[in-house]
Amino acid sequence: MRLHGRWGTATMARPIPPSVPEVVCRSPAMRATWRKLERIAHFDLPVLLCGETGVGKDVAARTLHLRSARRHEPFVAVNCAAIARGVAESELFGHVRGAYTGAERTRGGAFVRAGGGTLLLDEIAELPLELQAKLLRVLENGTFVPVGSDVEVVHRARVVAATCRDLPRLVAEGRFREDLYHRLSVVVVRIPALRERREDIGPLLDAFGAEAARRLGRPVHVTASARVAAERHAWPGNVRALKNAVLRAAALNDGLVDGDVLLAEPAPAPSSAPGACDVIVVPRGTYREMQAHLLRHVVAEHGSIRRAAAALAVPRSTLAEWLKRADTPSRRTTGAGPCTGSLDAAGA
Question: How far apart are CA 32 and CA 52, in angstroms?
């Protein structure tokens, strides 16, 4: 694809699309959702993806793209909540050189980067009202004007929007444009929460356990107690929370993901002032020696194993076992405790 005009002439490579991401669809709710996604993927209709945070709206958007005729074109995702207000228009539509202070060169925005592919506007509810009006004109006219320019640029991307907010309520409150809502919601797809698809939790545990093993560079085992606990848990953070919980449990418990560690919520350590952080000097030595030093420091800092375990968001029995292992002599240079493995694995 070649772009001409005041933007100059540039050739955008056509990337080879990745494979369609694996999606666990054992539950009736998820099977129905994915059937709907596959039915609409081939039609160039605007799609609004709704659902709680962490349900996988980005995966749904990428599936729409990879199942469509646009799969050989770029997939570009923009988080509207993360764009600074002053540069939001430039991020979406680009700018020409000299458009504002610091604009030293012409730059294409998200619509240009998406080309003839798919543009995901995530967290669309966070877009400022004034930019909502400009986005509406782009969707209606099929053209946009970069900041500082007077030349219209044709856009060819399919626009997919996503939100965890109640857009009809925001429309009623005057915080989201009604005309833009109707323009974006030609097809609305709701991604079910994890608590509504409990049949998928077991396969998700297996998938996330395998991913944790790759990232940590060590075997990971998900116990039966972890499966029972996960299937009973509400998971307010949905799939993202489950994935993080498996990775955290595997890292903290020597690759063993059991029920107690899986559901242990990470708790911020108390501090005397916002942003305060203690620096712990660890004597150089083997992993086991450094590990033992850190664990003893945490226990001493909190006065007891019980309070230290609460600060680390792990069961008391788990911390006691770590202490026991850390204090047990070993012939290996890497001990079997919460900080075992290479530096890369420990920091993953």
Answer: 17
